């Protein structure tokens, strides 16, 4: 039996844990991981969501016998397994994504839609977007479609279906498929094994080395396996193509590789809005829940930099964007204030008022934020990854992935900004990150059209 003192201590501990869980995003994510590590997640629906439970049950009931063993492997495993396929239906290009919603359409989704629109034109078929994640609260197929059409001028004729709508869709045996992110590639592969999709009509838009998004686990193994299914590859960035070749044994032609789809017209406008201010703002692309963005490592580097900048009496302020988290005391009188996830336009407004950017990513794909910053005139600091980011831009400093090197680079960037002010618009040299998107799409589409 517990005595009153022990019970009192437990209640106080529980109160502290609850306060920390509510206030601290990084702590909250750590708790979630410890309670339900990815390798142990067998649930295919969100807890307590009876609608998703019904959807999962219906998918399992409709799945061909050959695919039913995949139930529970990944939440998307059976999302396409039981689709209705008609020989006479009009062929389309089905772009398979997780979910599209306002406030969460990051660069990966933006690029996927851009590639989908271009490939549908190259294949001479309409584009249909199929979302295979469970629909989040406040979203719907109509809301997602409205957002998509507001963002892409040539998306007026695009169809879009949420996961719960998939049973109502008539797919054609002559459809083409474009997958991106391993969970969508896995869903299509399961449908291939069930005889609903022809593997030689599938293209795989590879945007990062996605097994690395998960610890060594079931998710890691399934993600890695998607590269071996024989889908036609199209790769976002030359560094990623080289990494896939080295670590997955894929022989991907350079003609299938394109540079990240950076909005150069918008970045040119951002550069025109830059000014040297009395205080240098340092922006940290901080996403505590995305381990590849190295949030805690970035905080450590910022604390080191804040101390040195204070000692040099350099006027700075620190702000974080990308994911909402509590304000962080960096010491030396500085705090890191989070603005969270921003809509597209507001992100670029913030970027225009920020002349030093820290953006980390522990993967071979050259992420957008450091290049958005450097191209538009800011001084960017990032981590190198096997030599994939060095010497890509004169205002991008790619250093060792450790706090001291990152802190030194941040301090050097602030000193340069105080001495010189922001730079002018300067794109990455042609070919450094890959070829043109249009050429890569045309090459991939031509292969799909000529396969039997």
- Distance between the first and last residues' Cα: 73 Å
Count every helix, treating DSSP H or I runs of 4 or more residues as helices.
14
- The helix/strand class is alpha/beta
Q: What's the architecture of the largest domain, going by CATH?
A: 3-Layer(aba) Sandwich
Helix amount: 25-40%
| Main β-sheet description | 7 strands, parallel
Strand order of the largest sheet: 4-3-2-6-7-8-9
Element-by-element helix/strand order: HHHEEHEHEEEHEHEHEHEHEEEHEHEEHH
The average pLDDT score comes to 89
Low-confidence stretches: 22-45
Q: Tell how many strands the DSSP assignment holds.
A: 16
Instruction: Give the DSSP E fraction (strand runs of 2 or more residues).
Output: 15-25%
Q: What's the shape?
A: globular
CATH fold group of the largest domain: Rossmann fold
The total tally of domains equals 2
Q: What would you note in describing this structure?
A:
With 452 residues, this protein is of the alpha/beta class. The protein folds into 2 domains: 50-262 and 436-450, Rossmann fold, CATH 3.40.50.11090; 264-420, Glycogen Phosphorylase B (Rossmann fold), CATH 3.40.50. It is 40% helix and 16% strand. The chain contains 14 helices and 16 strands. The chain has helices spanning 4-23, 25-35, 50-62, 107-123, 141-151, 182-193, 218-225, 238-248, 264-273, 295-311, 344-352, 368-375, 403-420, 437-450, and strands spanning 84-86, 93-97, 127-131, 159-161, 170-172, 176-180, 202-206, 232-236, 257-258, 280-286, 316-322, 328-331, 334-340, 356-359, 379-383, 396-399. The strands form 3 sheets. A 7-stranded parallel β-sheet has the order 4-3-2-6-7-8-9, with helices on both faces. A 7-stranded mixed β-sheet has the order 12-13-11-10-14-15-16, sandwiched between helices. Strand 2, helix 4 (107-123) and strand 3 form a beta-alpha-beta unit. The model is unreliable at 22-45 (pLDDT under 50).
